[in-house]
Design goal:
The chain is mainly beta and about 325 residues long. Helices cover about 5% and strands about 45% of the residues. Strands 13, 15, 16, 17, 19, 21 and 22 form a 7-stranded antiparallel β-sheet that branches. A hairpin with a 4-residue loop joins strand 9 and strand 10. It is elongated.
Length: about 325
């Protein structure tokens, strides 16, 4: 049977039937026996119009693309091999169709650096530029909160303040001061400076996450520990804590009344003014019966510290992350 002509798929009989025009110009099914065509069209594409591929001896489904052109359905292109001057391999993510003057035909292949015009940055170049910018972050931002020296102790962010002095702690009272982290860092020490020792007494240091309405929340696990306040010295706890950008609270509590360093009239102006507009609120205090630990979450219903007395609890910067 000749293959030329127009054919339609009979989905009930699952065969191809040849179409003819009768004397009145109507399209009819030929009286010839149905002819089963060898082709690889998936069942869900057999309803589409097909065209005969003489080289391969198969019928292939056709569809109109968005630009109105009649094309072979791409789902079966992988089985075509070479079509005269067009080379189409199996479709792969990242492939595109391009004409090779050297080879003399169209082909689908992966994009390479040579395909990108010289004035367009490549991924590797963009990535390198970003890495260079990130490695020199301090020089670009120029924000003093991000300018941190590795290996040094950093206290809470001080605005104002006219001198470092010392004063006695109240026993069984937690003091918490704000600590602003403007860039990711890792800290390896938390410390206070004892100036008036209290024999046989201790203190506990720790870092709290920020909670609701600028009040200390949960204690960061392993962010501190117990130290002696029985001698004049900088007393530190070895830690290994990574902090992301945000607000934290540095806390200290003692079962004694040691005098430790503080900065007078220093403040991080985030807690507002006192009721008489005479001082800034600079931190929190709350009662806590000493038990060699800090509570988590922070004990509720604390009171404001004032700018005239804020104890220096400091963190040592191990790395800028």
């Amino acid at each position: 049977m000749a293959m030329e002509g127009i054919w339609a798929w009979d989905k009930d009989a699952k065969v191809w039937r040849k179409l003819l025009c009768d004397a009145d110009g109507k399209l009819i099914i030929s009286d010839a026996d149905p002819f089963t065509v060898v082709q690889d069209t998936p069942e869900d594409l057999k309803h589409l119009p097909h065209g005969y591929y003489a080289v391969g001896g198969t019928y292939l489904p056709l569809a109109v693309d968005v630009e109105g052109r009649l094309r072979i359905v791409s789902a079966i292109i992988g089985g075509l091999g070479d079509l005269d001057d067009v080379t189409l391999a199996a479709l792969v993510d990242g492939h595109f169709l391009s004409y090779s003057a050297g080879l003399g035909y169209w082909q689908n292949r992966l994009l390479s650096d040579s395909d990108i015009p010289a004035d367009i940055a490549r991924d590797a170049e963009v990535t390198a530029d970003i890495a260079t910018h990130a490695s020199d972050l301090d020089a670009h931002t120029k924000h003093y909160l991000e300018l941190l020296r590795v290996g040094e102790y950093i206290p809470y962010t001080i605005v104002g303040g006219y001198g470092i002095s010392q004063t006695a702690m109240v026993a069984n009272t937690i003091y918490a001061v704000p600590f602003l982290v403007a860039r990711p860092i890792t800290v390896d020490r938390i410390a206070i400076s004892v100036q008036g020792p209290d024999a046989g007494k201790s203190a506990v240091l720790g870092i709290y996450n920020n909670g609701d309405n600028l009040y200390p929340g949960t204690l960061i696990a392993s962010s501190g520990g117990e130290i002696s306040v029985a001698a004049v010295n900088v007393q530190a706890v070895v830690i290994d804590i990574s902090l992301t950008r945000g607000l934290y609270w540095l806390a200290v509590v003692s079962n004694g009344t040691p005098s430790i360093r503080l900065v007078s009239r220093a403040v991080v102006p985030i807690l507002g003014l006192n009721a008489t507009f005479t001082q800034y609120n600079s931190g929190w205090t709350v009662g806590h019966v000493y038990d060699s630990s800090l509570p988590s979450p922070f004990t509720a219903a604390g009171s404001f510290q004032t700018q005239d007395a804020k104890f220096l609890v400091a963190l040592r910067i191990a790395s800028l992350d």
